[in-house]
Design a protein that fits this description.
38% of the residues lie in helices and 24% in strands. The chain contains eight helices and nine strands. The strands form two sheets. It has a six-stranded mixed β-sheet, sandwiched between helices. A three-stranded antiparallel β-sheet has the order 2-1-4. The longest helix is centred in the last third of the chain and has 20 residues.
């Protein structure tokens, strides 16, 4: 089966007044359809930069990158992905339904189709009944669920998530991790997820990409043996602890090699 995302020798260097900044260096990675791949590493290691390259928001300065067999720009025009940012980024003057409807309006969906998609995606993220509420009337976790619904509304096959739960408290984060796994199981989307949390990366992923400090390189790719259905208490299992240990070792090795 062809990969959904394929990077070969990917490099990105930013030119600044203080000299070049090497954000990504020699990144080789294939991501298959339906995978849940987390990216973890220290701040500034290129995790978000890689997602932005996939989204066509940054242009690599070397190597190749394909999304669904096409360039990231072509994939963006083909609406191949939805993007969930660190902050929910909801417009306060729009209702929750209005925020979810926004990309559908931009894309010119018919009115009845817009109503159906808003209704369906609200159900997917367990926000039925909140369509007419405003963002300020929802908790932080509910706002982030609305942001995920907006990214899902046009049914892209890839979901790019840049630390979407980083600002939330641990209890809410645990609940949203469970809900995200359930959403992934129901939709079959290909998920790329940036995090700084080792337990979050291990709990969510089929594979964990460990990245080293700048210039951002892949120091390890860890295949998860955990079952796709994962209760929260799986984090107490020997297998979970062993994966977390390997991630920690990969992070340490990347720091020492930098």
């Amino acid at each position: 089966m062809d990969p959904v995302i394929s990077a070969r020798g990917l490099n990105l260097t930013f030119r600044t007044n203080d000299g070049p900044v090497h954000a990504l260096k020699d990144v080789d990675l294939d991501i298959g359809p339906g995978e849940f791949v987390s990216f973890i590493g220290p701040s500034g290691c290129g995790k978000t930069t890689f997602l932005r390259c996939v989204a066509g928001l940054e242009t690599p300065t070397g190597g190749t990158l394909q999304v669904n067999g096409m360039s990231p720009d072509a994939a963006r025009r083909a609406r191949a992905y939805g993007y969930v940012f660190q902050a929910a980024g909801l417009y306060p003057w729009r209702t929750i339904g209005g925020n979810i409807r926004l990309p559908l309006e931009i894309m010119g969906f018919p009115e009845e189709e817009k109503r159906k998609r808003v209704r369906d995606t609200l159900a997917l993220v367990d926000l039925e009944g909140f369509e007419k509420k405003y963002p300020w009337q929802l908790s932080g976790g509910m706002q982030q669920r609305a942001s995920i619904a907006r990214a899902l509304s046009f049914d892209a096959g890839i979901l790019l998530m840049d630390e979407p739960f980083g600002a939330l408290d641990e209890i809410v984060r645990d609940r949203l991790n469970e809900e995200l796994l359930s959403l992934w199981a129901r939709t079959g989307k290909t998920m790329l997820f940036v995090t700084h949390s080792i337990p979050e990366a291990v709990y969510l992923s089929t594979r964990i990409v460990v990245m080293s400090p700048r210039p951002g390189r892949i120091s390890d790719v860890i295949e998860s043996p955990l079952p796709r259905e994962r209760p929260l208490d799986i984090r107490d299992s020997r297998a979970f602890i062993e994966i977390a240990h390997r991630v920690r070792e990969g992070l340490r090795a990347g720091m020492e090699a930098a």
